[in-house]
Model the fold of this input.
Amino acid sequence: MVVEDEEALARLAASYLQRDGFDVEIVGDGDSAVERARAWEPDVVVLDLGLPGMDGVEVCRSLRTFTDCYVVMVTARVEEVDRLIGLAVGADDYLTKPFSPRELVARVQAMLRRPRAGGAATGFDTGEPGHEVRVVGTLRVDITAREVLVGGETVDLTRTEFDVLAALVSHPRRAWSRARLTAEVWGEGWVGDPHLVDVHLANVRRKLGDDASAPRFIQTVRGYGYRLGPCT
Ligand code: CA
Done:
């Protein structure tokens, strides 16, 4: 979610994030930002400090009462960063205007690669260091053990089917283009039919007992690709 009252800047940031596969919403003021964040549950909030009405500091404090999402605070002056860090408003990272949209995307990507302590929307198995488990509703994907359970029942996936599912669950709410998902599973240099991923996805859905018209786990993002969800 991009919270910025300067429309051109908001659209620029959003377009770079979308190009990188993110599902982006733009909000122009602080009150709407808090309201939207409650309903939409974004993974990352890019939050401008100077906003009409409730400012970025108040928005960040308010967000922290109900969400553990990543917050990148955007300020107009570099001196403000120290002040904000001192205020302990709870942002995860800071960017000073003017910033390059590429830098923003790089920062967001870097944050999302870091597992959050305790895990927020998805659960990390804390039993053993490095043991990664993701839970989405009744779906439990043990990344480390390469094991999938739905409602406690084991689901037998092929290696590629598992890799496709693991990519999706590793980034809940990210919209994956076919090309990006293909690159993730088969590697960057792979040349082949991009719709191969659809075939594997269809198999994963069938095995999970997921209905494409009323998905519990994997949603089709029309004209684009796939996204994990709904996350309940
Ligand atoms: Ca502003």
Observations:
- The chain has two domains: 2-112, 133-228.
- The CA atoms of residues 142 and 194 lie 27 Å apart.
- The domain at 133-228 is CATH 1.10.10.10 (Arc Repressor Mutant, subunit A).
- The first strand starts at residue 2 and ends at 3.
